[in-house]
Amino acid sequence: MDIPAEQLERANEKARRRKQVRDRILETKTREKGLLIVHTGKGKGKSTAAFGMALRAIGHGQRVGIVQFVKGKWETGERGVLERFADQVTIQVLGEGFTWESQDKQADIRAAQRAWQASCEMIEASRGPEPSYDLLILDELNIVLRDGTLALQPVLDTLAAKPGALHVVVTGRNAKPELIELADLVTEMTLVKHPFRAGVKAQAGIEF
């Protein structure tokens, strides 16, 4: 496609101006801190995005802790991959399955408490000059908070007091407003279309 030289020069000048503005903005971003990140919403991809961050952290030589609050009974593909990096990744699978599968509220409460205790231990292990973890993923924590199987306030207090360099990712739909307020980064996955509504079952490599 032939583009007139004058049009190309205008486009290049516009790009130069955009870069100058962008560079000035980046010069003001000098802080580093451990982030509290929330992935929520009805759309697919909340845990998937979190596990993608785990792979990114592994690539940087960082250490990752993962606690699964709900999906304990599922054999997921991402778990199979991450377990190959045992020197960098610790996975605690402590869920009893979704509530419609377990059908035992007391068992759900015990499982949520065990998972939260494991999370607290990982957070504490990340303090000091030689932290055990750089990134923690609390997978489906939002679900047990929504269902009332875990008290909200102790979670908020612990996350607010986490080590300053530790990144924590919380996943699950229906994130509590208080958690969203506390978080540094919140992403809401929006459901537009899903094959389940057309009778397509969950499939390996896509849903798990």
State the gist of this model:
By secondary structure, this protein is of the alpha/beta class.
Describe the protein in words.
The chain is an alpha/beta fold. The chain has a single domain, classed as P-loop containing nucleotide triphosphate hydrolases (Rossmann fold), CATH 3.40.50. Helices cover 43% and strands 14% of the residues. The chain has helices at 5-27, 46-59, 77-82, 99-102, 105-125, 141-146, 152-160, 177-182; strands at residues 36-40, 64-68, 89-93, 135-139, 167-171, 185-188. The chain has a six-stranded parallel sheet, with helices on both faces. Helix 3 links the parallel strand 2 (64-68) and strand 3. The model has no long low-confidence stretch (mean pLDDT 89).
Write the layout of secondary structure elements.
Elements: H1 5-27, E1 36-40, H2 46-59, E2 64-68, H3 77-82, E3 89-93, H4 99-102, H5 105-125, E4 135-139, H6 141-146, H7 152-160, E5 167-171, H8 177-182, E6 185-188
Parallel strand pairs: 1-5, 1-6, 2-3, 2-4, 4-5
